Amino acid sequence: MFKVIQRSVGPASLSLLTFKVYASQKKDSTQKASVNISELSLYSVPEVQSKYVEEPRTQLEESISHLRQYCKPYTSWCQEMYSQTEPKMQSLVQWGLDSYEFLQNAPPGFFPRLGVIGFAGIVGLLLARGSKIKKLVYPPGFMGLAASLYYPQQAIVFVQVSGEKLYDWGLRGYIVVEDLWKENFQKPGNVKNSSGNK
Predict the structure, then answer these.
(1) In this predicted structure, what is the pLDDT of residue 57?
(2) Which listed residue, of 25, 92, 150, 181, carries a Cα 20 to 30 Å from 109's Cα?
(3) Distance of CA 18 to CAs 6, 13, 67, Å?
(4) Is 125 within 8 Å of 134 (Cβ atoms)?
(5) Could you tell me how many helices (H) and strands (E) the chain has, helices first?
(6) Is 83 helix (H, G, I), strand (E, B) or coil?
(7) Quick check: helix, strand or coil at residue 21?
(8) Which segments in the chain show pLDDT lower than 70?
(9) Rounded distance, CA 72 to CA 81, Å?
(10) pLDDT tens for residues 98-110?
(11) Which among 159, 149, 85, 96 has a CA at the least distance from the CA of 120?
C-alpha cells in the first residue's frame, strides 16, 4: 500500500498554488491472505427456496385478452394487405415523382403536343353523344390518333404489341366458344327435332 504525503498546505485563498505529492510504500505492511470470491458477502447467494406465483387476472385484463383474440384475424389480414400493397404504393409514388421531375424539365414542344392530344380526346367525347359504346371508343381513339401523329415510332410499337395481345385474346375466346359448342350441341341427347310438335 502507498501513503500519500502532502508537502505544502495553505489557506483557501492560496488554493491555486501548486503542490507536490509523493507516494511511498508503507514499511510496516504485512502480507495478508487473499480472500476468495465466494467468501465475500456481495457474492453470497441465499439458499431460500423461491416459488413463482402468478397473480390472478383482473376483469380488465381478461376483457383485453378477449378483445385481442377477437381482433387477431383482422390485424393479421391488415398486415398481409399492407405488405402486399406497400411495394405497389412505393412504385406508384416513384412514378409520380418521376413524372413530376419530367414535367419540370419537359422537352421543348411537349406541352403543345399534350394540349393537342387532350383536345382530340375532348372532340372525341363531344362526337360520342348518345351512345355508351361511342363514349368508350371515340375519345381514346382520337387521342391515340393525335398521339401517333407526334410519336410515330412509339405508336407502331404499341400497335404491334396490342395487336398480338388482341389476336391472342381472340384465339382464346374462339377456343372457349368452340369447346362450349361441342359440349352443348353435338351430344346425341341435345339434338332437338326440327319438326316440332304441332
Answers:
(1) 83
(2) 92
(3) 11, 13, 72
(4) no
(5) 4, 2
(6) helix
(7) strand
(8) 1-33, 37-48, 187-198
(9) 14
(10) 999 988 888 888 8
(11) 149
